[in-house]
Amino acid sequence: MGHNCSALTGDSGKKEEMSKVKIISTSHVKPGKMIGRKECQLVTFDLPYLAFHYNQKLLFYKCGEFEEKVEKLKDGLRVVLEEFYQLADKLGKDEDGVFRVEYDDDMDGVEVVEATAMEIGIEELAAEDGTASFKDLIPYNGVLNLEGLHRPLLSVQVTKLKDGVAMGCAFNHAILDGTSTWHFMSSWAQICSGSNSVSVSPFLERTKVRNTRVKLDLSLPPNPVNGDADQGPQLREKLFRFSEAAIDKIKSKVNSTPPSDSSKPFSTFQSLAYHVWHHVTLARELKPQDYTVFTLFADCRKRVDPPMPESYFGNLIHAIFTVTAAGLLSANPPQFGASLVQKAIEAHNAKAIEERNKEWEAAPKIFEYKDAGVNCVAVGSSPRFKVYDVDFGWGKPEGVRSGSNNRFDGMVYLYQGKSGGRSIDVEIALEAGALEKLEKDKEFVLEV
């Protein structure tokens, strides 16, 4: 178990890592043409995330000629922001205290930070267990979305590495979800690769999906979401790579006995969700009577009535929950847990979404992580996002990861696998002891 040694070196090793990153300059990029004054209120789907942290993504590439690449990225950004100008906005409030995104031509725009970390190589980032060593490659660590009132809604840090470039992005999660994030990233890459315009324009009219004006009296919470992480359990993160063969094996095992009520077979997502939930629950060594909650952030673009286009720009996700006792999850065949996940997803139709929104609007509640539930496994991101197609003209990324923001015990991010096809990368943050048990669980890692 060689890789556990790195977890035991303590913080001194981590601090040396940190000092490897040096900031060279900070500038701002605005849309390439005048847009004028624009305002768009945030809607019920956006508002719960105001006290989450900025959503962080890290992509790293093998390539040289750093300065040239930075200029190319900035040039492409000017063009793509003409369509995605809401990322060059600030948060604001109207006279009634309703949150909105506000754009004006004299605003700063998107923040671009240039940095160097000549001691860090691509291989190190690709192999890294946790995210601690690349924390300084992504801006806005520990910054709440609410701070978008006086900060850019997107900050990009481009860092020159020993043998490549790291691109750390921090997106304000109150204005967009994963689908919109990757729509923007792929559009930006298209422009940098020589396209004159984006192939699919963002659909910017948030109020078409919901137009209830929710007044929030929000100031920064006294203890921001994972600001109290020091008192919490010691978390570790790890990326588990599941090959096509492993994914197929998980799926066929879960589908070996079909669900009793003859509903449809379990999807890849439902099968993998059960697999992770089941094995994390075992690794936590819960008592049979302990509850465990499975949470997923589901895209509602096709679920709302009328459905919204895939290009809808904003948050159109809902957290969906299902719960059972740990003993039931482990004592029953896989169909039991997979059915719970499947039913929760299928029940979240237009009617359920409408009810959830009305309930929230009557008593608005800003999400904090403890709301995810007890002994929780929460799944964000999606292997459907084509993250390895984000090619700015110098090849596909060597790796795509989440930053250290918005992590808690049981948070899972799913990404398209680096090896392509049906492979999936599963990024898990867990209490250190439980993660160590999970790493040793051969039925979980499926070392074929």
From TrEMBL:
GO MF terms listed in the record are: acyltransferase activity
Q: Which keywords has UniProt assigned to this entry? A: Acyltransferase, Transferase
InterPro entries with a match to the protein in the record: CAT-like_dom_sf, Sec_Metabolite_Acyltrans
Database matches in Pfam families: Transferase
Query: Which family, according to UniProt?
Result: Belongs to the plant acyltransferase family.
Q: What is this protein called?
A: BAHD acyltransferase DCR
